[in-house]
Sequence to fold (249 residues):
Amino acid sequence: MKKLVVIALAAICALSLFGCDNSSKEEKTEGDTLVMATNAEFPPYEYYEGSDIIGIDADIMTEVANELGMTLKIEDMAFDSIIAAVKSGKADVGVAGMTITEDRQASVDFSDPYTTARQVVILKDGSEIKTVDDLEGKTIGVQLGTTGDIYAGDVEGATIERYNKGYEAVQALLQGKVDCVIIDNEPAKVFVSQNEGIYILDEDFALEEYAIAVDKGNTELLTKINDALAKLKDSGKLQEIIDKYISAE
Fold:
């Protein structure tokens, strides 16, 4: 009888250990996933092709994840929710054509920049706006939470109309609800190519650098990302990805 009890207890212990091994394996699998928060309304950096999110940022982060021995998972959300997602741990990184600013640096840390971008002004045909100085007192359309939104706030006497998507701001311009739109040059070129009657002002509104956001103080992940970016730059892969989506002008 005692022998049967011992055998039964041994079996229970073995099952318990087996269960623990499965649990550890599940945790490891979850840990091998790099979750990227983005706003897939910003071509050519991130946008939908069918049900897939593709673009410069998606390709770069796929390569970064590979360098880290991880699998990339992309979560689409409103742009102004990305930093909150990183801070709360819902995402490991925020990558969405995101510019390094002092306000954002108060909440998250940024990687080394991976590209330089330009903020430009989209105008409707026949606009009286000829230079960026002419934006004073005008109604400016922007995408909520972007640097275009931030920069527009510095324009004296301007009224700022904020939209969840850059495309919505452009539609407001076409409908005469705003006088112009301030947005990154690359999506601006896409929007202008897709809609007749609008164009990009020759004068740049601002220059900026894009980087990857991680939770404040997560130096281990930040170091790994910077190392991966450095490898991609040195190998030419980073420029190859950019050239895939942006034709040389």
Observations:
- The mean pLDDT is 88.
- Residues 32 and 116 are 30 Å apart (CA to CA).
- The radius of gyration is 23 Å.
